[in-house]
Structure formats: C-alpha cells, structure tokens
Design a protein that fits this description.
- This protein is an alpha+beta fold.
- It has 3 domains: 44 residues; 104 residues, no CATH class; 128 residues, Glucose Permease (Domain IIA), CATH 2.70.70.10.
- It is 41% helix and 21% strand.
- The strands form 3 sheets. Strands 5, 6, 7, 8, 9, 10, 11, 12 and 13 form a 9-stranded antiparallel beta sheet that branches. Strands 1-2 form a two-stranded antiparallel sheet.
- It starts with a strand and ends in a 7-residue tail after the last helix.
- The relative contact order is 0.11.
C-alpha cells in the first residue's frame, strides 16, 4: 500500500517514495535497537557480574582480608617493639648508667598507611610475607633481649665494669683525634704503634672513669707523663695519660662517670690532650669499640673515619 503526504505548497497529496520510507524505518529500527540494548545491558549488569567485575570483586575481598591481617600483625609487632624498647632502656640505665643510643631512624607505626600497597595485588602478597618474617625476627630478638636482661639482673656488677663511655665529655665529637694503629711519632719521627686514642681537649678538662674499677697505679712516666691505671677486675684495664692532676689515690674504688683527673700536657706530648687506652687480657684494643653506651652508629662511624685519616699521634 502506498503512503501519501500532503504538500502545503501545491495543496495536493504526493506519494512518498519507497526509498525514503526504507531509510526512515531503518533509522527508527536502529535507534530503537540501541536504546533497547542499553536497557538490557544496564539491567543485566545490575543482576549479573562480568568476568572482569567478578575478578575485581574477588581481589578486593582478598585485599580487605589481607589488610585486616596486616593491621593485626602490625599492632602485635608494635606492642612487642615497645616492650623491647622499655627493656633496652632498662639495660642501659641500670647497667651503663646512661641513656640508650638512638639510631636516628624511627618508624611512625600509628600513622602507617596501607593505601599504597592496597593498589597492587602482588605488592600485598610481598608485604604480607615481609610482615610475617619481621614478626618472627621480632619475637626471636625479644627472646634474646629477655635472656640478656635475665643475665644482667643476676649479676649487674660485671657489666658496670666494662668500659663503655668516653673518658671526656665529647658527644659532639669536637675533640676527636688519632686512634690505635701505626702512626708517626711526634718526637722520634718514625712509624710507631699508637695504642690508644688522643683527645685534643684543653688543659684542666675533667677526665672521667669509663667503668667501675680500682685505681691500680698512679705514675709519672717520661713518655705518658702523669698517668692513672684502673683495673676493672674482669680482664679490662684503662689508662689515662698526660694528666696535669690526679683526683684519686692508688687503691681507690671508682665508679663509671666519676671525675678522676684533669687533663694536661705532661710527658712526651706536643700538644695538650688526653691519651686514653683500653686493655683486654693484657692486650690493647681500640677504645672506639668501647663507646657503645654513649654514641650511636653514625657517630662511631664518624669517629673511626677521623681517627683513621690522621697519620701522626700527639704523643
């Protein structure tokens, strides 16, 4: 059946061509199909998940579970670490009579964010494994510290007799100088073993005992000048040389941190300083290794660097 359309210009009916009718019907059908497809897709997606959506939801569920587990492990680690910190502080204050060293690196676990690791599935797995390994190491170290603390509580005396601090006030390391090793002697001008560490302190600087012990001897030596020898009764002995004045007597009991003398320039010395030695079982050791109760690792590294790059001793 033909279709007609009224033409207002000619005031007559004109037959609509078949091609136009086909195009119009095609456009109508196409638009209707698109709209219907969109409606079907929206309805389907509201009821059913695509494979990609299903995978994403499964990963999200896993990440949520991993996040909760990591948070729980972090909280447990925080409790254990705080306990270890308190025990560490107890050891240093009760044994070495000083504050524990600070490493200079801290982690703010209260503000720890999981956002970054939540963005990557593989990173979560790696982090989860790392946290579990960390927890195991924390528990192992906890057992070691508790064992050490138990031994300390049984016999605190032997730990107070270990040289563990510097013989002068030098936390800022401004008096660092030459340490143990072959050095050019200032008077003989030949390489000679230097058995201690020199502090370039001015005359009348307070010299302190580095551990509990007994004053074994006070001598006036041509090389070391006025010197104090302390026996710590555990294989350790310390020597404080080139003094201007001794403040203790032979046989006196001294405590770590006690002022025992004033530094000077006596004996074979080309510059006012304190020469300090540590002996273990009648053999000299590097005193820098005995400052663990006062200096942190970075400071010890700095002191070693300075002392190792000085080729001439002061005595």
């Amino acid at each position: 059946m033909n279709e007609w359309k009224y033409d207002e210009q000619s005031l007559t009916y004109k037959k609509i061509k078949k091609v136009k009718r086909i195009i119009r019907n095609g456009i109508t059908y196409f638009v209707s199909s698109v709209v219907l497809a969109v409606i079907y897709y929206v309805a389907f997606s509201m009821v059913f998940d695509t494979p990609q959506e299903k995978q994403i939801k499964e990963e999200y569920t896993y990440l949520e579970s991993a996040y909760d587990s990591l948070n729980t492990n972090l909280l447990k680690a925080k409790v254990v670490l705080e306990h270890l910190k308190q025990q560490d502080t107890m050891i240093y204050r009760s044994v070495f009579k000083t504050n524990p060293i600070e490493s200079g690196q801290t982690v703010d676990m209260d503000n720890f964010s999981m956002t970054s690791i939540m963005e990557n599935y593989d990173v979560v797995n790696m982090t989860f494994t790392a946290i579990n390994q960390l927890a195991a190491r924390v528990l192992a170290n906890k057992a070691k510290i508790e064992k050490a603390l138990s031994e300390i509580n049984r016999d605190k005396t032997k730990f107070r007799n270990i040289p563990a601090i510097q013989p002068v006030e030098n936390k800022d390391l401004k008096y660092n100088s030459v340490s143990v090793g072959m050095k050019i002697h200032p008077f003989y001008r030949i390489p000679k073993m230097h058995t201690g560490i020199d502090y370039t302190v001015p005359i009348y600087t307070k010299v302190i005992a580095t551990a509990d012990g007994v004053v074994e001897n006070i001598i006036e030596d041509a090389a070391k000048g006025n010197a104090i020898y302390i026996d710590h009764k555990n294989g350790y002995k310390t020597v404080y040389a080139h003094l201007v004045k001794s403040l203790v007597r032979k046989g006196a009991n001294v405590k770590r941190g006690q002022v025992i003398a004033l530094s000077g320039d006596s004996g074979l010395s080309i510059f006012p300083h304190l020469h300090y030695e540590v002996w273990k079982n009648d053999k000299p050791i590097n005193p820098i290794n005995c400052f663990f109760a006062e200096l942190n690792p970075a400071q010890l590294k700095q002191m070693i660097h300075v002392s190792s790059n000085i080729g001439q001793s002061l005595d």
